[in-house]
Specification:
single chain; alpha/beta; Alkaline Phosphatase, subunit A; 8-stranded mixed beta sheet; 17 strands; binds zinc ion
Amino acid sequence: MKYVIVQGDGMADHPQHKLSGKTPLEAAKTPNMDTIASAGSLGRVNTIPPGLPPGSAVGNMSLMGLNPERYYTGRAPLEARGLGVDVEENDIAFRCNLVKFSKSGNRKTMKDYSGGNPTRREAESYVKLLDENIGGNEFRFYQGVSYRNLLLWKGGRTKVDYEDIHLTPPHDITGEPIEESLPRGAGSDLLRGIQEQAEKVLCKHGNSGNGIWLWGQGIGPEVPTLKERYGLGGTVISAVDLVKGLGIYSGLISAEVEGANGNIDTNYEGKVDAAKDSLTDGSLVFLHIEAPDEASHKGNLELKLEAIERIDQRILGPLIKHLESNNQGALLLVTDHITGLESGTHERGSVPFAIFRTSTKNENIDRSFSERCSNETGINFPRGYELIDFFLSEG
Ligand SMILES: [Zn+2]
């Protein structure tokens, strides 16, 4: 068997007034998603256990079949792995966003959690400046993709308990004053100091209004591989270091796809080609598309619909065709969490999934891949990490 998981990040949402009460998944034109939902199993999965932060790290961990309550140690170490950076036993890793601030009166607010989406070149120059001026033996900056960069605190665990550091995701405070959300708890003076210094360094080099924001801290996790759990090897295909890293921790190989950028204009065909190339018998491909999540964070309904439609046309269409021509495949279509257009952030709550198997197909069922339809089948995985057992064992 060949197994493909297609994860459209943050696709799930609430009914929208502008869509006459439909959700983006309901309103978008998605013939391929609807084929999967009709011909296969449709249901709901809760990827975010209570008490853990709703977001891609916990959500994708569940989808990889790992219980986040047991294995989640923060998102930054997963991203570090995706970047090829080793997080050693005593290290603490932090996501280091390039951000933009604005002044409102004498208060500083979070203008853009994505720092104006710097190009690779721009991000490279910023990270270099930060590492040269602030970095050293103890703190090291690493370039990731665009605004998503990394700070490693070497030996940080010998100084603070990483669980007592309290940081806020910057996309949760867009347009809000930053004062209340600055680092708190263990090491907070040091971390606030680094953020302040970074702003000065960037400003001094002609980038006024730019700064960094630290969050997503954690230590390197120890997780069992898919090979150990299911005897499966395979490939992870994503533009996002977090998902790559999680895949690599799970024993998958990360395929580099040129032009994969985490945005709406990512290289869809390149991702499908990479999936086809690496799909051999007894392997699994985890294919991730970031665009719907980004559109939701920006509150952009049109862009979210477009992102969902592109996944349908340019990823699912060709992949279904490919699996059908081989007649020995299964595809799990899913999303890692709700990202609300209205809230602009990740939310708790179960999300739709659908499983399509070339071997067993329903006939005369007509339903759509949506929050509403998935609620009506009665199939539900409250512990999201158990969904993969169902996917890999049936058929
Ligand atoms: Zn996500």
